[in-house]
Amino acid sequence: MEKKHKNRIQAEFGRLLEHKRIHVLDIPDEYQYMDPELVEQLTDAVAYVLANDDPEAG
Question: Which of 52, 58, 49 shows the shortest CA–CA distance to 21?
Answer without folding.
Answer: 58
